[in-house]
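Extended Data, panel c. Modelled sequence:
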Amino acid sequence: MIKSALTYVLSNALFLILITISIFSTHLSAQDLQWIGMENLRQSNPIDPSYIKQDTGLTVVLPGIAGTFIQDGPVIGDYFRKTSNGVSRLDFTNVIDDFGEENGIGVEFSVPLLGVDWKTGKGMFSVGYGMRVISDVQYSKDLIELYHIGNAAYIGETMNLGLDIATRSYTELSLGYARQLGNINIGARVKLLSGIEDLSIQNGKLDLFTDPDIYQLTVDTDIDILTAGTFEYNGLGDFSLDYNPVKLFQVGKNMGFAFDLGISGTLGDKFSYQIAALDIGSITWNADSTFMYSSAEQTNFEGIDLLEFFEDDQDIVVEDSLYQVLTFTKEQKEYSTQLFKKFLIGVDYDFSDKINIGGFFHLNQYNVSGVSSFGLNGSYRFSKHMVNLTLASANGNPVAGLGAIVNVGPVQLIATTDNILGVINADKVNYSSSRIGLNVSF
């Protein structure tokens, strides 16, 4: 029973970290597949630095919102079950076999707060400010099984309970310029970054072995946890995860730089293309609250000898022994993290003045796991408006997306989703990505 308590404490501590980040993630939704090759925009394209709007003059980009959510294995709605009193609880009974040996959850959430685009001649300047939250978590099936059924089925075996986590938020102030050179547009954006919060787990090894003869538990660790204002650890029974990534206005703290590059153009009257590399850069975390927790040791827990207590009036207390199984050293440390890079290529063909079709490949290169997407898109222009349809595969998940541009006088509304089902029933899909924006031209 005492050893069962250890596995219970260990699994719940790890699961608290995983679920805290996961629950935050599921309330968001950006790949922005709909924006690849999108025409008739009166503003800069967030995934194409080389895009130049058609009309000269000034465009003010008003606050918007965008988000992407992707996961492996069963969908969240299959294991977050509502009880009779309406409270959601975790239940893996029907989906335990659907998890892979390694599973991932990826989230990207951005709030473009304000932007200004100015086209003059054959060039366009752009300035923008916004906030982004990005999370990438990888966990093992063993962790799910330890939480669900305990370690009884793993006597004599080693369970892999390690977590690899890269989750951070930051603001970005960008300055861009795109220029038309004959049939080619080239563009670049330089971005000044300011980190808000970060939690990164490197070398996330945490193995649990149960001896088949004496049922002794052995915990083998090799973990580095880097944190900026999110995590405090004093033992399994005394730790906190305070992850509050949303802070819309911050400049001058945990600084970093990044850039976007793009090239696009036409071949003849019908064929066009675009290529872009985004978020090439890093953030240096050096505020007072940046720490590294390290654990690289092998610890055994043999249990408690009850005979020592038979002739003693003191209470039998095992928590201290349990909680010291996993220990960390702590030091204040400056460190850097790379941004999650994106690469895309798209081609388009104009069948007529109203109909366009194209194909694309898009890669979100998360720290732990990548998201690759490819597919076909088609657009239909009517009056001053446009609708766009996408059929794609996002990390092997078939999706159908829909987008629209609506122009009313100087105001332009843009609304897109890469997965229509993700808007209708978000907890029943493995992938969802949406964006909504508004701009006014003068």
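The chain has a mean pLDDT of 80. This feature is highlighted in the accompanying rendering.
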